[in-house]
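Example A, followed by Example B.
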Amino acid sequence: MNFSLASFDDRVDFTGARFRFADFSDARFRGEASFADVTGDGNCRFDGADFAGLASFHRALFDSTVTFVRAEFHRRADFRLAVFDGPADFAVASFTEDTFATARFAARPRPPKEPGLILAEVDASGSLDFSSAEFVGPIDAFGMTADALVLNPHQAANHVFGPQVSDVLELIESSAKDKQNFSLANDAFYERQIILSHHYSAVQRALDVVFYRTVAGYLVRPQRPLLILVVLVWALAVIRTLRARRPYRLRSMPALSRDLFQRAERSFLTAFRWRSEIPTGMNRLEVFTYRLLLICALIGLYADPTFRQIFEFLRG
């Protein structure tokens, strides 16, 4: 079916249509265009197409290659629940507002390193929404610009081509902050730090993995330093208690437990009380470690949106 260079002045409705081949290259859609529930058995081309009104590809199924190279969407473009079993090429396309929420990009390109989704040089003056979208193959996002990008950071890190992934994660982070979605922003920041660490020297990367990532959680995962703090306090309390009470008898177990809890309590209080003296049996390095872990946890807690709201409420 060849509609290249066609001009549709009114609303056009291809809802539920099935195409063995479709060419809408450089077509002009002056009104709304509905391609909802269409099935493309063969290649479908929308290169250079101009959509003046709403363009709906809701629940569309493309079994082969579909291209929207240089296509222009002046109003909302709806690709929700669309399935792309072949490569999808949106290179140099321009969007006002576009949603690929819950879409599935299932193409397995051959060779495997070829992109299954091409967003190279895409320009979105509004939001590009890929929330809950699924990806199988690589994503080419070279030169992509958007006022806002909604995309799972973990999927971006796994599927966007290496040289571009840091910029994409930075865009996700800034977009999430603008929308006060700090949880998504923290996830994007975390993934971006992992990507950046790949360019560090061996020593820097070792320090990054051991301390900044694993222990401090890049200061956006407060549960990590808190967990390490708790485990470290109890482990040292157990060691000191067992060393101080030898031999062990069954009747001495209550006293042993009491001693253990007192040592752990003293360690926790020392971590929280900054001006307190160092208790007997503890050293400066141990106290410094406790307090450093506590600082990392507090910074991470403040980065968490829920705890930030609680903190702001308590502060007045």
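Example B, a separate protein, is given below in the same form.
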Amino acid sequence: MESYGFTVMLGEPTWMVQLTELAEAQGRAYPLKLIIGSGEMLTERAREWVEKTWSADFLMAYASVDAGTYIGIECYKKQGYHINDAELWVEIVDSGNVHQGRMMGYGRCKIVDADNPDRVIAFNEGKGAIIGVPPEGLGKMDVSGTELVIEDSPDLPPMWQAFGASRRPDGHWQLPALSVELASPDAALHIGPQHVVLETAAIDLAADAVGTRKLQVVSWHVMFMSRGKVGPFRVDGTAHVGGSGKVGVRMLLHDEGNADKAVTSAAAIFEITERE
């Protein structure tokens, strides 16, 4: 970065934190003029650490990270967003468009029950970036014959068991030490096992707080703050009973083998569907 003379950094907070961690470890951080983040929430503790490392203010925006445009952005007081009504007419629309650009692709999908396609299970949307051109001669991988066909059955283990999670005698849910099966290509804990163990812990915490497991999740948010490097990974959490039959849960996933570092934060809201 320094060799190119970059003085402003723009991106998602998760990647900012990971880049800062790498720059700090290698001693390659240098003073910037400004850092702008969008697309995710950011803890004040993480913001202060990033600002100190790069000697620059870290402002959050409600924006398109990739295009650099914004609807709202913080000023240096960092007490809320200022609407950019000088350049934009802010309007909420239900477009549902899917777009393929030159460098970015945007897509969405609907997940249904294979035995009953009219039963919608979930919606999903995402985006991807073209970050480079493959070397000459490198084609797509041939994955024929590697497909997994799994028939739903009562004999299948629960998701937490399939990912190696367990509940310790002290009541905390955990994932085992990092292994090839749980790692992503960058040798860090994959997001899949994290979602599974956090959801399992959240259900237990909520059920213990309200005395029933007949719960329906209505909100789920996960913030990946740092790479899980060693393990085992422990979930700490608390449940808070609210009004209108709802209960909220907050959690932190710690890497016990790496100075008990908090690597992921999560929050969920459940609705009681029926009391036992």
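On Example B: The longest strand covers residues 116-129.
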